[in-house]
Amino acid sequence: MKRLSVLMLSLFVVGLFMTMSSCQKSTGPTNDMFSSTEFQLPVTDNTPSDIQDASETSEFMMLPPTGYSNEDCQFMGWNGSRDGRDGGRFGDMRNGRGQRLHLGMILRKLDLTQEQIDAVKLLLREHMDCVRTAMQRLRESERAILQSANQERRTIMQQAKEEGWTREQLKAALQELAQSTREELKNNPVRVEVCLAIKDCTKTLLDGIEALLLSTEQLEIWTSWRDSLPEIKCGNE
Prior knowledge:
elongated; 3% strand; 62% helix; 2 strands
């Protein structure tokens, strides 16, 4: 029994030593790194902003629609301190809205070198800048729509004062203006333009990654995955 215990202990020590040696010799990229959020594409959703209705005492203000995380809101150009929602805190947002793609699964299968991984990270940063620029353009177009709506509100307020409208008449006029403003945000042509711009951003990213692949096996794995991605429609295209 004593000899058996010594033998088992010896085998354990040898196994531990081999494991430690194996860990020390492993210098290449590990699969675990691909779980990082840095390989996750940002939300690419051209959903129009919501608005806070105007009243006798307040103007229209831009609001994010519900369903986005705080990080999503900031990335897509909804800034609470400027747009008037809860000092920049989007406490009632729910995660999961928008189109999100994580490249970790496919990158893990490609057996990339460290040089390739570093190049992919650079492409991802450029992609983030590309999408952010498109989103900012959409929000600026929406702010212009709200600026026009607030000018119309001031005209209504002046007319109500001069003609002695009742509170009910004023409320009805402002509600009608709110409805037409929401329709204008929904039908904003810049939304389609931005959707197309984001598709171009994504194509540039995927083309760039594909150009980094060196082997036929890598290209076959990548092409099969890329062909499986759903097509995003923009307007009437």
